[in-house]
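Dear Dr. H.,

I hope your travels went smoothly. While you were away I took the liberty of generating a structure for the chain from your last submission, since the lab meeting agenda had it listed for discussion. I wanted you to have the full record in hand beforehand rather than looking at slides cold. The sequence, exactly as received, is reproduced here:
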Amino acid sequence: MLNRRLVLGSAAALLAGSTSPTRAPGGHADEATLRALAAETGFTGVLMTGRAGRAEQTITLGMHDVEAGVPTRADGVYCLASISKWLTATAVLKLVDQGRLSLEAPITTWLPEYRADTGAKLTLTHLLSNTSGVPALLGDVMRADPSLRTRVIPTEEALRLFCQGDLKFEPGAQFDYAFTNWIIVLGIVERVAGQAFPDAIRTLLLEPLGLNEIRGDDAFIETPRTAVSYRTLEPLVRQPNERMPMMLAAGGYYGTAADLLKAAHGVFDGDLLSTDSQRRLRTVIATGDDYALGGRVRTLMIDGQARPAAWNTGSTVGYRALLAHRFDDGRTLVILNNTSLPNPVRGRLGDAVFGASPPA
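The corresponding predicted structure, in token form, is as follows:
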């Protein structure tokens, strides 16, 4: 069993810059260095690197299920958390390419029942970049009515209950990582596609890219292949992930490292999206937060050169995830963890994989 003090102590060492990765040709760390670095940080989970959708290095450390004594498996299923937002944004852009949605039209174009005064100001660009100003009312409403936590809430009701408060700021003026943005996006996708959200995502994105190991339905998630989520290792505390259908667009998808690797290649290097939609997916909108549509885009400093890369992260209960993809050479990194790995360690581990200088 991993020792939590070792995890935190090693994390502090990594953050202090004690590790200097050896890099193979192409600017990425060699496998021996990656394995040593992952072990040093107390990492538990899957670390996979590759190119063109194919894995080149796969490292598994720690335990898939501590109580059962099951070691981490390369094909383990992990919650992707907010990487789900990137999947959602990609599906929205596919609908844009099909002429069925517009990023700049008011959302009342598709949700005419939405509050008219604010709905006329809001666009999908605002929602997908978390710059809408729509307040996060979910927690307040559920505290006022705890019964909402124990029942399935239809999309229309969720939109009415949680998503129509007074704007916190004018759309586009600030960044606010509000869950309510993604309930509205889910409602628009369902309305336009004429399908339940999981069916729409499967039709627009997962099936075209051959992604059979990324899904949001319980039959896929509740299997022995799903890595157990742990809040702490000492004491050993599991942390169940409570899910509701309205959470899918923001953080409800699960998947494997191999399919995330394939997804990054298919979206960023393939022809799923038009050139303009590719550009939109790579363009930072909330500059102070490096946020584009559905995820972050970072500039990595590698050998003194600026290299832009998608940097999609996810954190929920004990799961931590990173999907990073360099735009210059098409290299991809996937990190999936099930033991509450400190988020800064995940980022530093990602920088080390690509041979990037840590942010100042």
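Two observations you may find useful: The longest strand covers residues 305-316. The longest helix spans residues 83-97.

With kind regards,
E. W.
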